[in-house]
Design goal:
Elements lengths: L21 H19 L2 H18 L4 H23 L6 E3 L6 E7 L2 E6 L3 E5 L3 E6 L9 E4 L5 E4 L3 E4 L17 E5 L2 E7 L8 E8 L5 E8 L23 E5 L5 E5 L5 E5 L6 E5 L2 E8 L2 E8 L4 E6 L2 H7 L10 E3 L2 E3 L4 E4 L5 E3 L17 E5 L2 E5 L3 E6 L6 E4 L5 E7 L2 E7 L6 H4 L7 E7 L5 E7 L6 E5 L2 E7 L5 E6 L2
Helix pairs in contact: 1-2, 2-3
Length: about 500
C-alpha cells in the first residue's frame, strides 16, 4: 500500500529592506567636521558639522524615532550652546580703581607697580587698586624716571625729586635729566653734567647729591671719554628696569680712569690710559675690559675695587661696550649676568661666558612683526620664534614653552616673576555671526616665569593694550573698556 506525504508549506520570512548608509556617513563626516572646526575655531566648518552630526544621530535610531529626535536635538543644542556661552564669558582680570591716562613708562618695584604718565605717578596694588598717587608740585611735565635702590624712584619734571616706595617725596634736587644719573648708593645719587658746547673731550662734573636734604656730598671733575661706558637708565633690549651702579667711573684729561664709590666719592680703583680700555660700573661690580690685537680680556672688581675674576672673552663683549655712537652702552645686566646684543652672556660673579643668541628687540614690537625676538627678565630668557615661545632660566633650570603664532604677538614682558604675552585673538566659534568685533580683539596671557603655569588671561578691545606693568606676580593691564574709558585690570593670584 503506497502512502503519500503531504508537504508542509514553508514558513514565509518577510524580506527586510536594506538599511540606508547615509546616517552613518553623515554622523562620521559631521563628527570630523565638528572636531576640525572646533580645533581651528572656524565657524564655517564647525556649524555645518554640528548640523550634519545631529541629523545623522537622529536618523540612526530608527526603531525609536522620538529617542532619535531627542538625541539629535541634544547634539544641536550642545554644539551651538557651548561656543555661545564661551562668547558670553567675561573679559577676565580683576578691575582696579585708578583711571590711567596714556603713559610713557611702567616701573616695577617689589610689590608695587608704578605707572608714570606725563603728569603723575600712580602706584597700583593688586588688593587695594590705587596705593598712592603723586604729581609734581607745579604740575609740570614729567620727562623721565630712574629706578633707584631700596624701591625709590627719581622723577624728573621741571625739577627732580626722589619718591619713596610709599609715595613720600624728598626735597627738590634742582633741574636733573634722567640721563645725568650715573650711580646711586644709599641716600646719595650721582649726577654727571658736561659742557658739550666745545670740542671733545668735554669737561664734566660728577656730583654726589644727598636725596634726603638735597645737599652735595662730594664732587669730582673730569672729561668725557670713550673708556668710560655706562648702562642705560631705562629698559633696553627687553631687559627689566635697570638700577644705577654703586660706583661711578671718572676719566681725567690725561686718560686715567678713577672709579669712585657713589656714597662718598672715595677712589676705589685707578686705571692707566689704554686705547682699548673700557670701564663699566654695573650693579655692585666694575667690569674692566681691554683689547690687544685679536685678544680681548675682561676682569671684574667689587665695589671696593677688590678683584673678582679675570678671563679671556669674545671680542664681541668689547664691541657691545663701545659707547661712542650713543651716550650708553648696548649691553644690559640681567640677574647678575651681562648680555651683549649678539647674545654673549658673562656671569658677573664668576666670569663664565655663554652664547645665548642675538637679542634683537625689546619688550614690544610693531603689529604683525613679533617673531624672532628675545626678551630678558624675571630671571629667564624668553625667545619668540615663528611657532613657539620658549622660556629658559638665565642661571640654569628646566625650560618650558608655549605653542603660538609668533607673527601675531604684539607685546612681550618678562618682569615681576611673570612672562606676559599679548597677541591678536583668533575669533571664537560663532563670533562671525553674533560678535563680528571679536576678530579685532587681543588676548593677554600671564605665565609663571619659572614653571610655565598659566596664571590668568584678559581679553582686550580692538586697540589692544596701552601698556602692561608687572609686579610681584601680578600683571596690570591698561586698556579701554567697552565704553571707551581707560581701565586697569589685574591678572594674578
Amino acid at each position: 500500500m503506497t502512502s503519500t506525504t503531504t508537504p508542509t508549506p514553508a514558513t514565509a520570512t518577510p524580506l527586510r529592506g536594506r538599511e540606508p548608509r547615509w546616517p552613518r556617513v553623515a554622523a562620521v563626516v559631521g563628527a570630523v567636521a565638528t572636531g576640525a572646526g572646533w580645533w581651528a575655531s572656524e565657524t564655517v566648518v564647525y556649524l555645518p558639522g554640528v548640523l550634519l552630526l545631529a541629523l545623522g544621530v537622529a536618523s540612526l535610531v530608527r526603531t525609536r524615532r522620538r529617542l532619535g529626535v531627542l538625541l539629535g536635538a541634544s547634539v544641536l543644542v550642545v554644539g551651538v550652546g557651548v561656543p555661545w556661552l564661551a562668547l558670553a564669558r567675561t573679559d577676565g582680570g580683576r578691575l582696579v580703581e585708578p583711571v590711567v591716562h596714556p603713559y610713557d613708562e611702567g616701573v616695577t618695584v617689589d610689590t608695587v607697580a608704578r605707572v608714570v604718565d606725563s603728569r603723575r605717578v600712580l602706584a597700583l596694588d593688586a588688593e587695594s587698586g590705587l596705593a598712592w598717587e603723586w604729581t609734581p608740585p607745579d604740575w609740570s611735565t614729567i620727562v623721565g624716571v630712574v629706578l633707584l635702590d631700596a624701591g625709590r624712584l627719581l622723577v624728573a619734571a621741571q625739577t627732580a625729586t626722589v619718591l619713596g616706595p610709599d609715595g613720600v617725596a624728598g626735597p627738590d634736587l634742582g633741574t636733573v635729566h634722567p640721563a645725568q644719573v650715573v650711580a646711586a648708593d644709599g641716600d646719595v645719587v650721582v649726577l654727571r653734567a658736561c659742557d658739550e658746547s666745545g670740542p671733545r673731550p668735554a669737561p664734566c662734573t660728577w656730583r654726589g647729591v644727598d636725596a634726603t636734604d638735597g645737599s652735595t656730598a662730594w664732587t669730582a671733575d673730569g672729561v668725557t671719554s670713550d673708556a668710560t661706558v655706562r648702562l642705560a637708565t631705562t629698559p633696553r633690549l627687553g631687559a627689566p628696569w635697570p638700577v644705577p651702579p654703586t660706583t661711578a667711573a671718572v676719566a681725567s684729561a690725561d686718560g686715567v680712569v678713577t672709579v669712585r664709590a657713589a656714597s662718598s666719592g672715595r677712589p676705589v680703583l685707578a686705571l692707566d690710559p689704554d686705547a682699548g680700555l673700557r670701564v663699566l660700573p654695573v650693579a655692585d661690580a666694575v667690569v674692566v675690559a681691554s683689547r690687544a690685537g685679536d685678544r680681548c680680556t675682561a676682569a671684574a672688581h667689587d665695589a671696593d675695587g677688590d678683584p673678582r675674576w679675570e678671563a679671556e672673552v669674545p671680542c664681541g663683549v668689547l664691541d657691545g661696550l663701545d659707547a661712542r655712537v650713543s651716550a650708553f652702552t648696548s649691553v644690559v645686566e640681567v640677574d647678575g649676568t651681562l648680555w651683549t646684543p649678539d647674545g654673549t652672556v658673562v656671569d658677573l660673579a664668576t666670569g663664565d661666558v655663554d652664547e645665548r643668541g642675538a637679542v634683537t628687540t625689546g619688550r614690544s614690537a610693531p603689529q604683525g612683526h613679533g617673531e624672532d625676538r628675545l626678551v630678558l627678565g624675571s630671571g629667564v630668557q624668553v625667545a619668540l620664534s615663528e611657532d613657539a615661545l620658549v622660556v629658559t632660566p638665565v642661571r640654569g633650570g628646566d625650560a618650558w614653552s608655549v605653542a603660538l603664532d609668533g607673527g601675531e604677538v604684539r607685546t612681550l614682558v618678562a618682569d615681576g616673576g611673570l612672562v606676559v604675552v599679548e597677541q591678536y585673538l583668533r575669533p571664537r566659534l560663532l563670533a562671525e555671526l553674533v560678535a563680528p568685533g571679536e576678530r579685532r580683539r587681543h588676548v593677554v596671557d600671564a605665565y609663571d616665569a619659572r614653571t610655565g603655569a598659566h596664571v590668568g588671561r584678559v581679553v582686550s578691545g580692538p586697540q589692544g593694550t596701552d601698556g602692561i606693568v608687572v609686579s610681584a606676580g601680578t600683571a596690570f593691564v591698561v586698556d579701554r573698556g567697552p565704553d571707551g574709558e581707560r581701565r586697569v585690570r589685574a591678572i594674578g593670584p
